Structures are given as C-alpha cells and as structure tokens.
Amino acid sequence: MTTFFRTSLTATLLALSGVAQAEWSANLGFASEYYYRGIFQESTSASLGVDYETGGFYAGTWAADVGDGLEVDGYFGYGFDAGDVSLSVGYTGYFYTGDFDDTYQEINLGATFGIFSLDVAVGQYDNFDGPTLDYTYYSIGVEKSGFYGKYGGFTQDFDGEYFETGYGTTVADLDLGVSLVFSNSGLVGERDEAVLFTVGKSFDLQ
Prior knowledge:
Elements: H1 9-15, E1 23-36, E2 39-54, E3 57-65, E4 70-82, E5 85-96, E6 104-113, E7 116-125, E8 133-144, E9 147-156, E10 160-171, E11 174-183, E12 193-204
Antiparallel strand pairs: 1-2, 1-12, 2-3, 3-4, 4-5, 5-6, 6-7, 7-8, 8-9, 9-10, 10-11, 11-12
C-alpha cells in the first residue's frame, strides 16, 4: 500500500467477506512523505478517515494534506470469497480542494490468494482544461508477517512502473511502518527512490 495509515481498499474489501455486523471505524495518520502508487504527493502529510462495513459491503472517506489544499477520497464496494480466492470490486473518487491536482475516478478490482494479491484500477482523469485521460493501474503484491513487496505500473494515457517494499507492525496500539519506493520511469518525481516512515492509529466508533 502507499503508506500504512492509508486505507488499502483491497485489504478492507477482503476482510469483509462473509456475514458481519455493521461497524464504523476511524483512522488518523502521519507520513514523513506521502507517496501513492509510486508517485510523490507531499512531504510530512497528515491524514484522517472514516469507514463503514457490513456483510461484505464497505464505504468510506479519507483525506490527506497535499500542501495546496486537501486530497479527499470517497469509496465503496463489496468483497467476497470464491473458494480459496478472495475477490473485490469497488469505486474510488479522488477529489482536491485546491489546485494540487484534478479529479480521478476509477473502478477497482482485487483478488488475493494466500500471501499473494492482485489489484487493477480502470479510471479517468479530468486533467484540468486538457482532454480527459484514461488509465489502467495494476499491481502484484506479496505479504508475510508484516513484510510486503509490490510491483505496479500504469498503461493507456499514463505510463510508468515502480517497486515498493516495506514492513509494518503495531506497537502500543500504534501502526508503524517503513517503506522503500523505487522507480525506473520517473513516477516518484525528481528522485528514483525514496524512504518513508508512517505512524497511524485506528478507532472503533461503536
């Protein structure tokens, strides 16, 4: 995932499979640098989010400081099990209160099998006054005992690839993480690699 405090849509979906009691939760976080899908967003970014889950369905919102205003995300979807494979489908919209970026809207598809995961997002970018751009994002990941690795990239009107690896753990109810991001296509901005640290906390709102 981009940072450990950010909601992982696929992970949330897959945790919801089966019959579950309706549940509200919230999260707060801080990152030494905010990266998303291998792309630098902002240094020292704080975030907060609220999620609702019931019987495989989920919905939520998440916001982060991106310097020139806020990034505000809205999302919903459904996750279910098909044998040993967990599948998910959902929608995400990325909106901005300032001029940092323009709106993205996408359909999210995900699958996990054991320690392996696959994510695909098919979306459109409003692109300010330019023509609307189409993109497909993909990633393949593996996670074991807090350690993870992910290879991802873009096709269509967007281009680029990256690799991310890291470790996350919980200490005294705080979620702590460290991540390394490597890019061979300029996705991380002016640098080809980055090291970031995150801290977050989740709350039940029952």
